[in-house]
Design a protein that fits this description.
Number of strands: 30
Helix content: 25-40%
Shape: globular
CATH architecture of one domain: 3-Layer(aba) Sandwich
Oligomer: single chain
Bound molecules: adenosine-5'-monophosphate-propyl ester
Strand order of the largest sheet: 5-4-17-16-18-19-20
Amino acid sequence: MAENFYWRKKWDRVLEWNFREPKVEWFKGAKLNITENCIDRHLEELGEKPAIIWEPNNPEERTRVVTYSRLNKRVCQFAQVLINNGVKKGDRVCIYMGMVPELAYAVLGCARIGAIHSVIFGGFSAQSIADRLYDAQAEYIVTCDGAYRGGKDIPLKSIIDDALIGNRLVKKVIVYTRTRTPVSMLKGRDVWWEDEMDYALSQIERNNIVTLPAVEMDADDPLFILYTSGSTGKPKGVVHTCGGYMVWTGYTFVNVFQYKPGEVHFCTADIGWITGHSYIVYGPLSMGATSVMFEGIPTWPDAGRFWDIVNKYKVNILYTAPTAIRSLMSYGLDPLRDKDLSSLKVLGTVGEPINEEAWHWYDREVGKGSSPIVDTWWQTETGGVLISNLAGVTPAKPSWATLPMPGVQPVLVDERGEEVTEPDEEGMLKGNLCIKAPWPGIIRTTYGDHERCRKNYFATYENYYFTGDGALKDAQGNFRITGRVDDVLNVSGHRIGTAEVENAINMHTNVVESAVVGFPHQIKGQGIYAFVITEKNTHEDDRAKNDILETVARIIGPIAKPDKIQFVSGLPKTRSGKIMRRILRKIAEGETGNLGDTSTLLDPGIVDEIKNKAL
Ligand code: PRX
């Protein structure tokens, strides 16, 4: 598969690995630059073909079509801007932007010169950014004045300014103008994207070069860091490397979606998440595809937005999340009426388990029963898809991710790490999902703390990569992902750690302690349910709840605000002080009957109190 890419020098060895340390080296000895694969190698044949088609938030605004040759020009120009501002190979550049083409230029510009990008989703707060900047020891930021999302303007630069209070490391902030919101610009630190780009262009023109040479990278040099939540309170910086990630995203893009040259691919994710990295930017571009990038949200100005985009650009592959499908379902069929979706050939879903009702709606109303749906299971840590049917090649099974990609070896294990071999009454194997051996897109380390990577993913079960998910396997070898088995929630496809939310709630001045669990939510998949103990004399009213919500929005971001807050006088704890989340989860799910064994609790009476007042 790696032969399908352009390498400056090919590998000496394909793979060396052990999961003990862990150490995984793919394509050792190989030299490359991923942008030569995403841009340069297409220029001759596809130079005038669109690489990125950009659909603005406001449908009245002008569309932008970025051809491969234009992409080349802009990426080289921005790479020169980075150089001019002192960025060198290996430096960390934090990118906090809305979904504008400049975000793609920024990402690829970093890759061009070997700087490590770390994109932060626009829904994270200043505090979250500050933590990530510190963890990555980032010295450079690329941002926008603001971002448009539906009816809202998000003041990105102002949030960055808050994140930088007390920060002594960041040297330069490059600000792209999108919303023309007034922003503060600090002399010596903050510079305008437009000015910098103009200057870089004049340099490039003066030197008569069309293409800025790409920096040669080792296959296992880091390409980017992307922060994601785990079961601890602190997000981890997942590190992906140049060679393996490139091969895995390109290979899975072509095979899962059965992409054919000339097709238009529309992945509705945000580049702030791994799905956007892999299937808006790197995967499609490395294969010379046309990638649609959408600035807005599916329900603004109305719930027909996706269908208008599909029609407008004759989209062939539509890749979205179950939460978006469920949300659009709730608007009924009106928004779909008179929309021409005949260009669609393949549909995809990702991010969370898809319920059968949503699957059938997607199949019937969007695919008109004739477009295969690929249910792609993967994670930030896996770089690209690991389990999925291949569109039109292997059969789909509603709400099942089905078979592993060729090259992937999943295994189900029990609590002790023994491989599950005994099917249950329904003929299913049931266990925790692990992977036996590395694939090229596997996480290499957690930034700045390799031991954390080992502990999190490779220590639970010896010699296996542990995904954190539970799964079923049928007699034909198909996998159905049942959800996380650790304390991680999946809210509207966003991954959020319960410990993170608890930490944020506990920061509120009136809060003594809290416990957070998930509960089934019609649209979001999972909602956030918080049980909160407050200080004596606190008025436990809606105002107190709103203050807690505001605190969480400040500490993590609006995406982590609990859907329900229940004030309680105590939490169900064991004698050793451990919170019995199993019980809280059942209460949050609306279970009123049997809550299982509560005899080991320090104060079993608390359970009835919580249950009686459940929301
Ligand atoms: O629980 C699984 C769920 O999303 C988790 C990974 O989240 P994140 O790293 O944010 O990446 C999301 C996009 C790749 C997984 O551990 N998940 C992802 N895809 C599916 C899924 N659950 C069920 N079915 C899927 N297709």
